[in-house]
Amino acid sequence: MNRIQKLLIAFLSLSILFAAVVLSRVWIFKPQSTVKLVKLPAGEYDTETWGKNYPLEYNSYKKNIEMAVSPAGYGGSIKVQKAEMQPELYTNFKGNPFSKDYTEDRGHPYSLEDLRESKRIGPAAKAACITCKTPYIEQAYQEMGWSYANKPLNELMDKTKHPVTCANCHDPETMGLRVINPAFIEAMQKRGIDVSKANREEMRSYVCAQCHSEYYFEPGTSKVIFPWDKGLTPQQMYEYYSTKPNGFAQDFIHPDSQVPVLKAQHPDYEEWQNGVHGQFGVSCADCHMPYMRKNGQKYTSHWVTSPLKTMGESCSPCHNQGQELLFSQVKAIQDNVWQLQHTAGQKIARAHGAIQQASTNTAANQTEITNARELLRHAQWYWDYVAAANSMGFHNPVQELNTLGQAIDLAQQAIDAANKAAGTNTL
After folding, report:
1. Is the CB of residue 230 less than 8 Å from the CB of residue 237?
2. Where are any strands of DSSP class E within 84-234?
């Protein structure tokens, strides 16, 4: 056997050995081609039961129990009072429960616990507050229709022990994505959209939108309504509210300025759908619940958290600029939005004081005071639209910076109008 033959035999042996190793690893870690569908009974809301059949998703869901600061320094899941960073909240929400208790949101597993512990909830609270806190809303609406919303909150709280779980977003029989919030379904119908016919990619945002959106309670019935009849921008929603829809005029009257204030409620979906990601078809889940792999098996992460914690899976599929650069871009956007948000909030607090002072002047021009109140109502809505959302402007930085700029300008106009009404220029 010559030297060339020996080399060929050695090469062939190594090739066979390498192929054997590869095949053995593929066989050992062979990914499932499909996830085995396990049907669960309707009304099964216990995450542990779901988790026995879908362990990868369940284990990631349990990470929502963890509490941590946000990588960029805004938001996060630690239950701290927002007024620690924004003391102007005490003034701007004076006369409203948000001035007493306004904490950062924690994860889905805490939805019921945080509701029970909230100082904003009193004995007169209505069951409408439970709409986005538990999958039990499905059963309540099936049994009672919208009349559930006007019942005492404690009555429905006593009937459920499950916070936001798998069943809020998945059909237990088919595992397909679904929405169960009747307010969202009705709001989309008004926009000409039948969510039951939505494709899977659309549903990967709709399941989030059913709760992460602006809403109000209809006076008298407490029915939950999304203010989308005229559109989803802050300008369009303010125009809608200006019509006093269904008799709804304001969330509260500010005790100092007597401004009929609108309190925004986490308009995350509205921000996103007008932003660059929403416009280009990137779903909420693409970023906040990215696809992951374990032992070759692909699954959707149910750790609903900041994409900055999972940048490789959340951002890299579309962006190749490198994680360090992407992080710095996000941080810059949020820093700029925070600066204007804080400035706007402080300016609005000053405007409440200016109107109060002008109102004590018996000779003040009442027409100008009325004008000042309308300007301030408008300004506070724009400021709160951004401040109440969870992205610190990242979902739509162009719109949010513009909205905050308008809030600052409107608040200054309110101050000027109040000073003009009283013939002073002290604030």
Report:
1. yes
2. 216-217, 224-225
In a domain, 180, yes or no: yes
Indicate whether 308 pLDDT > 60.
yes
15 contact partners, CB below 8 Å, separation of at least 6: none
Q: Which of 310, 280, 146 is nearest to 205 (CA)?
A: 280
User: Does residue 409 form part of some domain?
Assistant: no
Mean pLDDT of the region 346-350: 98
Instruction: State the average pLDDT over residues 122-135.
Output: 95
**Are the CB atoms for 241 and 335 separated by under 8 Å?**
no
Contacts by 66-72, CB closer than 8 A, 24 or more apart: 66/107, 67/106, 67/107, 70/306, 70/308, 71/306, 71/308, 71/309, 71/327, 72/306, 72/308, 72/327, 72/330, 72/331, 72/334, 72/392
- The whole-chain average pLDDT of the chain stands at 92
> Which residue range forms the structural domain that includes residue 170?
47-317
Structural contact between residues 396 and 334, judged by C-beta atoms closer than 8 angstroms:
no
Residue 245, in any domain of the structure:
yes
- Tell me the two tokens of residue 256: 């100092």
* Rounded Cα distance, 142 and 123, in Å: 25
The total number of structural domains that make up the chain:
1
pLDDT in tens, 41-69: 999 999 999 999 999 999 999 999 999 99
CA 406/CA 412 separation, integer angstroms: 10
- The distance of Cα 229 from the centroid of its chain, to the nearest Å, equals 20
CATH of the domain at 231: 1.10.1130.10
The rounded Cα 223 to chain-centroid distance in angstroms is 20
Task: Report if residue 150 sits inside a domain.
Answer: yes
pTM of this structure: 0.90
